[in-house]
Amino acid sequence: MYLLKLNFPEGDNILIQSETDEKLPLECLEKFQSVELIVAVNMQTKSKHTICLIWEDDAKEHNQKLVYPTL
């Protein structure tokens, strides 16, 4: 699988841009593998976020999935 990008439909105020620039796009992501990204938070940062993962794989060129991580 080739992870193309992350999209924040509700806005991104936690990711450090240099982290995503350095680590994405990810050339290959195997099943059960993960990617760690450093985030910056403060007392006003909400605990739940909406992230749209966009990738391509052998089955389809443009895949999307919404995930809802919490801090």
Low-confidence stretches: none
**Relative helix content:** under 10%
Q: Structural class, judged by helices and strands? A: mainly beta
Rg computed from alpha carbons, rounded to a whole number of angstroms: 13 Å
Give the count of structural domains.
Answer: 1
Proportion of residues in extended strands: 15-25%
Specify the biggest β-sheet.
Answer: 3 strands, antiparallel
- Report, as a whole number of angstroms, the end-to-end distance: 26 Å
What spatial order of strands do you see in the largest sheet? Answer: 1-2-3
pLDDT average, as an integer?
Answer: 87
**Shape assignment:** globular
Total helical segments? 1
Written as H for each helix and E for each strand, in order along the chain, the element string is EHEE
Q: Give me the count of strands.
A: 3
Task: Give a description of the structure.
With 71 residues, the chain is mainly β. The protein has one domain. Helix content is 10%, strand content 24%. The protein has one helix spanning 17-23, and strands spanning 2-7, 51-56, 63-67. Strands 1-2-3 form a three-stranded antiparallel beta sheet, with no helix packed on it. The chain starts with a strand and ends with a strand. The model has no long low-confidence stretch (mean pLDDT 87).
Overview in brief:
The protein contains 1 helix and 3 strands; from the N terminus they run βαββ.
Give the helices and strands, then pairings.
Layout: E1 2-7, H1 17-23, E2 51-56, E3 63-67
Antiparallel strand pairs: 1-2, 2-3
Supply database-style keywords:
mainly beta, 3-stranded antiparallel sheet, 3 strands, 71 residues
